[in-house]
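Request: Have a read of the protein record below and say how the chain folds.
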Amino acid sequence: MNLITNLLLGFCIASLGSITPSFLNLTVVKYSLRNGKKSTFYLIAGYATVLFFQASLGAYLANVLMKNSEYITLIQKIGTGILFLLSINFFRIYFVSKKKIQGKEIPKSKSYFYGILMSLLNMMAIPFYFTFISLLIGFEYFEYSLSNALYFSIGSTIGSFVLYTLYAIVAKNIEHRLNFIAAKMDFILGCLTSVVAIGNLTYLASSF
C-alpha cells in the first residue's frame, strides 16, 4: 500500500510542478518544434533523471527539518536570501525575454545531456519538493524512510516525464499561448517571491 500511495503522491506533486509554465516546458516546446519529438523525449529523459535526485534530496531535507526544529530559523534566513535572489532572477527573465534571442540548435546526440543541464539550472525544484513533502509529513500523509523516498521519487520522475511529454506532443498548438503566459508568469513569480521574502525578513527582524 505504501508503494502505491507514495508513487501517487510523487506523481501528483511532480505533475503540479511541471504543468505550470516555466523555462523547462518552454524549452520542451521550442525543442520539439525545432528538432522533432524523438529528440525531445531524450531531452525530457534528462530532465527526469535530475528530478529523481532533486525529489529525493527534497524529501531528505524535509525529514531533517521536521526532526530538528532548531534549524528552522537558520533555514528561514537562508530561504529569505534565496527568495530575494529568485525574485531578482524572475524579473531579469521577464525583461530580458522581451528581446528576441536566437537559440542555437542542439545536436540530437546531445539531447539527453542538454536536458540534464537544463534541469540542474532549475533552482525551484528542490525547494518545491521540500515544501510539499514538509506539508505531507506535517499532515501525516508521508512518513520518511529510504523506501518511501524512493517510491515518491520514482512517482515524481514518472509524473514529470508524462507532463513534459504532453507539452512536446501538443507543442504546435500551445507555442504562442505558452510564451505569452510564461512571460507574464515570470513577472507574477517575481512579485510573489518578493512579497514572501519581505514578509520573512519582517518576521525574522521582529523576532530579535
